[in-house]
Queue: 2 jobs
Job 1
Amino acid sequence: MTAADALIDDLCNLEPIKTWSLIVTLFGDLSDHHITGKELGLLMGHVGIKTEAIRVALHRLRKDGWIVSTKSGREVTYSLSDVGLAETRAAYEDVYRRDVKYPQGWKLLLTKSDYAAPDPAIRIERSLLLVPVEAVLLDGAALGLQADTDHIPDWFSDRIVPSQTLVLAQKLCEIAERPGIGDLSPLSLAAVRLLLLHYWRKIALRNSSWAHISMIPQGPLAQCHHRVTQVMADLPRLDPAAFAN
Amino acid sequence: MTAADALIDDLCNLEPIKTWSLIVTLFGDLSDHHITGKELGLLMGHVGIKTEAIRVALHRLRKDGWIVSTKSGREVTYSLSDVGLAETRAAYEDVYRRDVKYPQGWKLLLTKSDYAAPDPAIRIERSLLLVPVEAVLLDGAALGLQADTDHIPDWFSDRIVPSQTLVLAQKLCEIAERPGIGDLSPLSLAAVRLLLLHYWRKIALRNSSWAHISMIPQGPLAQCHHRVTQVMADLPRLDPAAFAN
């Protein structure tokens, strides 16, 4: 097994991968948002996804109005629909961002039972919410609390984000730190980028992850954020013209 | 009804008074810790306590080892026992203090269910304690939280101290602020001092009161503390030689 295969293998083994979700990641990172069926099959095949699984996933995504396909002779080209493009753009702001979301940090709120929690709130306990400072409205129904961020115990960290996510982040960060990623073949490089981005995307789309990153800046999520977005910034976006030739 | 009678009447009507508890207050404030049965009856009678109730209370306190009595001819003199004196001294530090107890303030702790709460802790919710900073041990089982003291909602204040206590404190403070207390007859002055001290003592012996005073320094408990201890400092301690002649 080559170093590239080992890298891809380790990434594939981090967590079970849903094919449709991996394709969503792929389309979000494509430099010009479209890819032929052949190119898609090449890249997905390189990370071990079978042709039949790709076919089913593409069918589902097209049915959901998320991608569109055009046929030219025997070649099919897939691209994001307008809906898919709009959703991807919104989501990918969080996925690629190198700074932290909600830059003013997070606050705990002790609330009355009838408190209407603002949207990005994370429930820590029945009456205790974690809320971005920007979203805090101290209207008498909540008491704002500033946590001692120097001494955040592990069990509290686990209430923000499940420990399995923290383990995933740590492993992902370790893989992203391996030397030699820049020296891979274009196809392997694309596969590694796709997989790193896929796992990170799932983490970055949860507000709870950003709360953890803000409150525990030495923690595995913050380190993973730092490292994975660094790799993304250093490497070019997915480009079939680069990896399919 | 004279101004003195009205003052004493209003104090007596604040809350039901337990005779034995009022006698405990009285002994704690006596300048030399002993009083004759006749002097005791005079002062207690002036605040409306019946002879029979005094007799029962004295019997109970003597049986509990809290006071001792000595007889000289037809005159009985009561004084605190060694136990009573030691307990009174410890308690009265808090009752007469003009500064706040636990000067470093109070902190909220979010705790795990198996957290061993330190002694002066006040439970706000199942897993949320209010603890003096001096007593906080951040050993990994608790997360320290600093409350926004600028915006403490009323419902939170009520979780520290029941609202009926806050109402009592407010009324007590209003009475203590009335002009002319210094101009009362020695016996009425002693009665007013005894009653003010009695209600305040019940408040000051609860740690939750000190938490409230620290966290809500503009609140009714803090104002009551300020005013009542000011009156205590301005007036002489209870002295039968002064009020029984």
Job 2
Amino acid sequence: MHGYAKDKDAYLTRLRRIEGQVRGLQRMVAEDEYCIDVLTQVSAVTRALQSVALGLLEDHLGHCVAQAIDEGGPEAEEKVKEASAAIARLVRS
Amino acid sequence: MHGYAKDKDAYLTRLRRIEGQVRGLQRMVAEDEYCIDVLTQVSAVTRALQSVALGLLEDHLGHCVAQAIDEGGPEAEEKVKEASAAIARLVRS
Amino acid sequence: MHGYAKDKDAYLTRLRRIEGQVRGLQRMVAEDEYCIDVLTQVSAVTRALQSVALGLLEDHLGHCVAQAIDEGGPEAEEKVKEASAAIARLVRS
Amino acid sequence: MHGYAKDKDAYLTRLRRIEGQVRGLQRMVAEDEYCIDVLTQVSAVTRALQSVALGLLEDHLGHCVAQAIDEGGPEAEEKVKEASAAIARLVRS
């Protein structure tokens, strides 16, 4: 079971909302809305995705990484490395 | 007519693909996929959104802002200010 | 003359302050300050650099790009392309 | 002792290099270099700072957070929360 399991429904609700926002972007473009208004909405969707990612990361650190550390051994270091690489991708995206 | 009008179909195709990717994220969470794999996909969706935004911005600068500059007067400065605020939101999202 | 020329002193003051903040980071590390406090300061320096970049960009759009658009011809499109590439680097850094 | 202690000299060397790059930015502005070239250098300094932050974060997760998890108790959860907040600041800067 993964760290986010306990918040699964909340994540699914947020992702469905983001899906709706992306459909909203399609409508704005289809209806020739002003570029800046479309850009403002793109920034809002990006921030919503980011906050889903930050939640997943906190759950992962507090559950999967913590569990590996608790059990000790080489897996602990691998989990930290893996999480750090995911953080780097997030920071650079 | 806005700067992105000439690429409208391409933007709609990209946004539909992003919509599909967000649905894919829902499936990953619903099927309890590993946190890091979900995070990797979130970064991919964020980057796809970012590149849509950068395209819209270039079209806007080259069309709406350029037109205002061509026509001269206070609107030119307003358009530059407005575009710069949109860039700031993008950089900080 | 470039767009930022009129604000040159202000930019130099801000960059000297950022230089001081980076020296402050060195002191924190040399004096074994807590990791999270060092990280908080790194985020502050990154935001300060970002706001210098956003200012330079607005000046550039309002001066160098506007001038090229005013004069018309192929240089206008090149300037827009060049500015858009700089915005992309900023968004992705 | 903090996670980054073992790499302290390397971090100090990198931060001194970043300090030099910021002084380089001052020289570029003082000598009226082209805006886009200054912006390119700002992006380079931002990325260098980011990679210092990502290194500090990995060290912190692998040492301070891991230690708190090992020892168990409420401090473990606090450390995860604290690290997650630092990651959020980094993602949003």
